[in-house]
């Protein structure tokens, strides 16, 4: 059973390691990972300043996500799973938790910049491709997705 709890600032190193392992799962080489490392590093300040949630199974951290305010909605700024949990259904449950939390905050939409390898997942979750953005650290084109919530009445 998956449980969710707020990420504490003390979890920054653990969540950085999880994030790096999750990104490396897609076969990126060491050079890419070194260039991307700064943007994948989680700081205590980031965890304090944003709405960050950890997914646990039997008390073990298996994933995490964060929601950051943007005009008319929230940015799903981080969404990472341990490689052993990719494809297990944990991502779907994390997505549902993120959507529930975004709706509870009154967001009209949730936007995200996806790793190209995760595009299929976000499309299966109902997110619409809205365009793309160039990642400042790696120079790659990242797909931008959005899910609209409509009225929260």
Secondary structure elements and their pairing?
Elements: E1 2-6, H1 12-24, H2 30-40, H3 44-49, E2 51-57, E3 60-70, E4 73-81, H4 90-104, E5 109-113, H5 119-124, E6 128-134, E7 141-148
Parallel strand pairs: 4-5
Antiparallel strand pairs: 1-2, 2-3, 3-4, 5-7, 6-7
CATH homologous superfamily assignment: Gcn5-related N-acetyltransferase (GNAT)
Distance between the termini: 30 Å
Query: What count of domains describes the coordinates?
Result: 1
Structural class: alpha+beta
Order of strands, main sheet, comes to 1-2-3-4-5-7-6
| C-alpha geometry | globular
Please give the CATH class: Alpha Beta
CATH topology: Aminopeptidase
Helix proportion of residues, in percent?
Answer: 25-40%
Q: Report the biggest beta sheet as strand number plus sense, adding barrel if it closes.
A: 7 strands, mixed
Give the low-pLDDT segments: none
Mean pLDDT: 94
The DSSP helix count reads 5
What Rg do the Cα atoms give? 15 Å
Please describe what this structure looks like.
By secondary structure, the chain is α+β, with helices and mostly antiparallel strands. It has a single domain (2-148), classed as Aminopeptidase. The chain has helices at residues 12-24, 30-40, 44-49, 90-104, 119-124; strands spanning 2-6, 51-57, 60-70, 73-81, 109-113, 128-134, 141-148. Strand 4, helix 4 (90-104) and strand 5 (109-113) form a beta-alpha-beta unit. It is globular, with a radius of gyration of 15 Å. The termini are far apart. The mean pLDDT is 94.
